[in-house]
């Protein structure tokens, strides 16, 4: 019988070869394949869940068991707010937004016909021709050098003032008030867009204006108080609907789905409504 002896010492095996042999073991190959299968299964589950969510929020709100017409919903919300100060019982909407791939969060401003709170606007201008127009547009106080002097000597209080605008001719005259106005966030500045020749437009844009922004999959907006009439709340609801549906980013092929919308009061129930007014 012929015996063959191999001298391993004369055959050197490179360490890299040994590493490859051990790294491609059956156990590691199985683990990699199993991990890939799990990822595919998770992706399918997420897609299925998303499709179900889309169908749910694309369906008519009238199919929901808690659906009501807005006037009927308001009666329930008013009843639930009995005993609360009417001015503090806020009626709000909460809508679910189902984003599509690549869509951007909704944001913008709503201009309410009936503002939730009075906005007091201060206008600095030396142009006599537009002072009266600013007052008619809803400005709380309008003036030039005389108003600057009143603020300096303390005869005009800034308490309760929400915003301040100015025409370019007043910018240098406001320098002595920089600290007084700045502390309250009322200093008109060009870079903030609060200095303009068209202060009338600034007044109109800011009276009754309420910004909104999508957070996660929701947009929440207060639209009235319980001491508002049904007509006033419905007008505000229509304004909110127009602004939010109109906030879809331009050029989006697959816009966000604005789904189920709930009308509720501060301590009241949530009632599903048809938000597309």
UniProtKB/TrEMBL annotation:
UniProt keyword Zinc, yes or no: no
Keyword annotations of the record: Ribonucleoprotein, Ribosomal protein
Any one of the GO BP annotations: translation
GO MF, one annotated term: RNA binding
Any one GO cellular component localisation term in the record: mitochondrial large ribosomal subunit
InterPro entries in UniProt: Ribosomal_uL1, Ribosomal_uL1-like, Ribosomal_uL1/biogenesis, Ribosomal_uL1_3-a/b-sand
Highest taxon in the source lineage: Eukaryota
Protein name according to UniProt: 54S ribosomal protein L1, mitochondrial
């Amino acid at each position: 019988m012929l015996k063959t002896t191999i001298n391993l010492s004369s055959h050197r095996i490179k360490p890299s070869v040994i590493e490859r042999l051990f790294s491609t073991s059956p156990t590691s190959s199985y683990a990699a394949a199993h991990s890939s299968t799990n990822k595919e299964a998770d992706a399918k589950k997420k897609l299925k869940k998303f499709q179900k969510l889309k169908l749910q929020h694309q369906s008519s709100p009238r199919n929901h068991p808690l659906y009501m017409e807005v006037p009927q919903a308001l009666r329930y919300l008013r009843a639930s707010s009995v005993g609360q100060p009417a001015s503090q019982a806020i009626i709000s909407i909460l809508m679910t937004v189902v984003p599509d791939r690549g869509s951007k969060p909704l944001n913008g401003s709503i201009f309410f016909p009936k503002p939730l709170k009075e906005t007091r606007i201060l206008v600095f201008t030396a142009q006599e021709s537009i002072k009266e127009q600013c007052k008619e547009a809803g400005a709380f106080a309008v003036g030039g050098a005389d108003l600057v002097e009143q603020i300096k000597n303390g005869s005009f209080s800034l308490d309760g003032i929400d915003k301040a605008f100015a025409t370019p001719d007043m910018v240098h005259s406001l320098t002595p008030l920089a600290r007084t106005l700045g502390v309250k966030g009322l200093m008109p500045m060009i870079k903030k867009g609060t200095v303009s020749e068209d202060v009338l437009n600034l007044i109109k844009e800011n009276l009754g204006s309420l910004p909104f922004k999508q957070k996660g999959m929701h947009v929440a907006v207060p639209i009235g108080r319980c001491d508002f009439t049904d007509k006033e709340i419905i007008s505000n609801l229509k304004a909110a609907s127009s602004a939010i549906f109109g906030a879809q980013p331009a050029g989006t092929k697959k816009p966000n789905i604005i789904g189920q919308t709930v009308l509720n009061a501060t301590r009241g129930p949530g009632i599903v409504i048809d938000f597309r007014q």
